[in-house]
Amino acid sequence: MRPNIVVIPNDKLSMRNFKINKVHNFWNSESCGERYALGNSVAKKFSNEKINRYKLEPYIKKLANFTEFKDKDVLEIGVGYGCDHSQIARQKPKSLTGIDLTKRSILNTKLRFKILGLKSSLKIGNAEKLSYKDKTFDAVYSWGVLHHSPNTKKCFDEVYRVLRPGGVAKIMIYHKHSPVGWMLWMKYGFLKFKPFKSLTSIYAEYLESPGTKAYTIREAHELTELFPKKEIRVQLSFADLLSGNVGVRHSGFFINLIKVIYPKLLVKIIANFFPIGLYLFIKVKK
Predict the structure, then answer these.
(1) How far apart are CA 154 and CA 168, in angstroms?
(2) Which of 53, 60, 142, 149 could form a disulfide with 77 if both were Cys (CB 3.0 to 4.6 A apart)?
(3) Any idea where the domains of the chain sit in the sequence?
(4) Contact in structure between 284 and 140 (CB atoms under 8 Å)
(5) CATH class for the region spanning 12-27+34-177+212-241+278-285
(6) CB 169, CB 65: distance < 8 Å
């Protein structure tokens, strides 16, 4: 039997496509949020995914403030399982467009919208090269997507390009200084006798799709340098508290032990005084 050989390209364009394909393959195997879609019917699965999502992450509705999308031309980058996209649709935007890197997410979201009687223009798309003219949208929304792109800065520049003057973007990317990152470093750095392994490498190799990135607040300002107005805040995530269906990729003695002794209350208290947490919520205005 011939061994499987992975050929690593050596030119920039091929390497970029290679990285994008790895991200695509990871998320095409399971849409974000799909593991919470439990039930004996398709409609029940979508309903349960919505309940579980906002139960685990009540801050999403507060930070996203979906009501602000009413009467606007809205683009969501990375629709995933379609939960937030359906919340936007319920606000009666002037128009709604959604893209995702994977066919799986687009098909899931189309099915969800058919069942719910909602409308959106949905298609496969790449955040690094949006297929829309300049100044097309009043608002752009993206939750936990752009940090998976090989060129996250290009994604933010594209958001700026397709926004109209006065338009607003609400985007969540991962924050570097988080309990999630520290726990992953403990397991894959310290306990593997690799104490000098960087958090950048930890996120890229062990958090979700290959090449996942996390940013500091200063780096977030650099990503959004084109925008004259911005708000950036750190949010403690459910994963930082080891709540919900976390640790699936990192199961074993270590994660089971941590879940037993993990001081959730202490972490919450610390987060009230210091900017720690996996989520970096960014609101910018053109």
Answers:
(1) 17
(2) 142
(3) 12-27+34-177+212-241+278-285
(4) no
(5) alpha beta
(6) no
Whether the Cβ atoms of residue 163 and residue 140 lie closer than 8 Å to each other: yes
Average pLDDT per block of 10 residues along the chain, 286 residues long:
46 72 90 89 96 95 97 98 98 98 97 98 98 98 97 98 98 97 93 95 94 98 98 96 68 70 93 97 98
Q: CA–CA separation, 99 vs 124, rounded Å?
A: 5
Give the side-chain half-sphere CA count within 13 A for 121: 11
Model pTM?
A: 0.92
Phi, psi of 63 (to 5 degrees): -75, -40
Residues 6+ apart with CB under 8 A from 286: 160, 163, 164, 165, 166, 167, 168, 169, 227, 228
The pLDDT score that the predictor gives to residue 246 is: 58
pLDDT for residue 258: 76
Distances (CA, A) of 152 to 88, 145, 203, 214, 280: 24, 9, 15, 10, 14
pLDDT at 10: 58
Q: Tell me, what's the pLDDT at 260?
A: 80
Q: How many CB atoms lie within 10 A of CB 58?
A: 11
Q: How far apart are CA 77 and CA 141, in angstroms?
A: 6
User: Helix axis angle, 103-116 relative to 12-28, nearest 10°?
Assistant: 40
The pLDDT, as a whole number, for residue 157 is: 98
Contact 63, 281 (CB under 8 A): yes
How far is residue 280's CA from residue 270's CA, in Å, rounded to a whole number? 17
Measured between alpha carbons, how far is residue 100 from residues 59, 147, 149, 229 in Å?
Answer: 23, 14, 12, 27
Strands 279-285 and 229-235: antiparallel
